[in-house]
Design a protein that fits this description.
The chain has no helices and 21 strands. The protein is mainly β.
Amino acid sequence: MVNATAQNTSTPLDYSLGEASKRIIVHQQDDLLIIHDHLVQDVTPTRFYHNPVDTFLFLLKGEVYLQQYESSNVQNIAEEITLKKHQGIWLNANTINSVTLLTPRVELCLIRLSTSVNTKSTHPFEKISSGTVELQLGRNQIKVWPLWETEHGRIALELYPTKYKETLYYHKAATQYFLPLNGSAVFMSKSKTPTSCPSIGKVVPPKEAVAILNPGDQNSIVLSVMTKDYSEGRVHLLTRT
């Protein structure tokens, strides 16, 4: 069974899951946990997940066959489903989930939004993607597909068009996480120095000013996560002329 370490950390940690397979704890705080698992079929053909709170699994690369067992009896399969690239699903708290790799390499992202909510099995066992949710228009008319959105937080796919840029802003209380899935994403801070988003994504704490740019010639799709206080508002910084 797999559980993250108990300590809080905002510094990425990584360790081996057996030869070429590895786990990266990108961010671990009480309000947000982000984990990347890089799995190699020859080394780790199947991996089990058993989490104390509801956890969202999003497939970054590859294809997997997911089976969920009854907590009291691992011999009985309660649900089963196949997940492809850029599809996600909720793994309910305290369920036993078996992920079987269907491709040579698989990368997945595990997201936990709180240690104290979603402790009951409230999410249907169904895959979620841009094809299953309604398109919305976000800030500056960017396209947004909210994969999950409640008072506890938001997980979404955001499309940034070519040559996109925006002014600096910060969230009053919410922590944000951005992970480019394709195309380019560049972040601007108060220093005015643009930096490319790391391959493991970028965590932006509350009240830290940031702006997203897409200087490329193709649209950029980004996985966006915000914690429960995102509804308290975004503050734009005025620029002097």
